[in-house]
UniProtKB/TrEMBL annotation:
This is TPM domain-containing protein. It comes from Echinicola rosea. The lineage of its organism: Bacteria, Pseudomonadati, Bacteroidota, Cytophagia, Cytophagales. It holds the Pfam family TPM_phosphatase. Signal peptide: none annotated. InterPro entries: TPM_dom (IPR007621). Residues 3-119 form the TPM domain.
Amino acid sequence: MAEKLFSKEEKQQIVAAIKAAELQTSGEIQVHLESHCKGDVLDRAADVFAMLKMHKTKLRNGVLFYLAVEDHKFAVLGDGGINAVVPKGFWDGIKEEMVKHFKEGKFAQGLVTGIQMSGKALKEHFPYDADTDENELSDEISFG
């Protein structure tokens, strides 16, 4: 079950990583877990991205970390605003670092690492502005 993957403390660590990353960037980061993903993981992540209304951010700079726990699939998906300015293969480096933790069964640490890396990278293109930034999307982990 996706809901049981993380302890209460691990969930708090992940949410804290999202909040900290979003203090560096106007980008919005969300984590969504499901037990199963039928078909292509990127297609499912895109469906979840739309379901969570992540494409509605002002600068189109949302990032989704999607995990299908039972099927051992995951995706990191950025919106068009991000993908227009980052180099090709940008998400691959982040995913590679996450996989190192996942292979050791450290799923929370893998997510925290990916979130931190995304926050730092997004800061370059979408810096945080205390006067204009607002938290457009929930920082809580969602489950499907």
